[in-house]
Design goal:
Length: about 260
């Protein structure tokens, strides 16, 4: 299996994405913003199809749309009570654009399927290099806002009283989530982005309440699920995204047992 270059790239790409998704997803679950991650993945679909329409790489369109949508969500929905409405508005608008782009360019149908369900076995060396750069950027940005983000997530009223801008922190965090979503889509697709971004962090938070062990466990679970999923798919000829998704669901169900 490891004698093939495309398999080595698949393991490397899925490993990078799993670590980034585990770290970012931990805070996403902690803040109760999993719907935001789901919405951003659909926004990314519109960006990818729009990029294909004008003849550029889908990743760049996905990044542009998710970053813009994440920033808009953060600016429009400062309070918890307003976030669902803001996210819903951005989501429906993005889906409308996605349908329009597909209608204008029917030649992207096969590419659209890859975006919806992912294709880690088709990651090129150039794409792998960009995933590494984006992963480093996402983790560096998360580390830069980590302390105020944790403060604002656990005690928002106290954080605001101490001078922490909840809107700024929330906007910057959703921009980081946008980076993680754009990378995750390359592995599991738009429809299954919850597999890496929410599944492992949710299981980790069921198993430990400590911050750093929880983040490390989320990254480890995501990494294990991605790599084992690729191995199972290689020997069974099943879709890689399905194998990773099934493992994610099994791990989360197993995490419910100790409770």
């Amino acid at each position: 299996m490891l004698t093939y270059d495309f398999m080595l790239r698949a393991f490397a790409a899925s490993g990078i994405v799993a670590v980034v998704a585990g770290a970012v997803g931990y805070f996403l679950v902690l803040r109760g913003q999993t719907f935001a991650g789901h919405a951003l993945s659909h926004v990314g679909f519109a960006g990818a199809t729009g990029a294909a329409l004008v003849g550029i790489g889908p990743l760049w369109g996905m990044l542009a749309f998710t970053l813009a949508a994440g920033s808009a969500m953060g600016l429009l929905g400062e309070r918890l009570s307003g976030r669902d409405v803001a996210i819903g508005i951005v989501l429906t608008l993005a889906l409308g654009f996605g349908l329009l782009f597909l209608n204008l360019n029917t030649a992207t149908t096969l590419q659209a399927t890859s975006i919806l369900f992912g294709n880690v076995l088709a990651v090129s060396a150039t794409m792998l290099g960009w995933l590494i750069l984006l992963g480093v950027a996402a983790l560096a940005a998360l580390g830069a806002i980590g302390r105020p983000l944790l403060f604002a997530s656990l005690q928002p009223e106290l954080a605001e009283a101490r001078g922490v801008s909840l809107r700024l922190v929330g906007t910057l965090f959703l921009a980081v989530v946008a980076l993680a979503v754009a990378q995750s889509v390359q592995i599991v697709g738009v429809l299954l982005v919850f597999t890496l971004l929410v599944g492992p962090p949710a299981a980790a938070q069921r198993l430990t309440c400590r911050l750093w062990p929880g983040i490390a466990l989320a990254c480890a679970l995501g990494l294990g699920q991605a790599w084992i999923g690729i191995v199972v798919a290689y020997y069974s000829d099943w879709p890689v995204s399905f194998c990773i998704t099934a493992l994610s669901a099994l791990v989360y169900l197993a995490a419910l047992v100790p409770r």
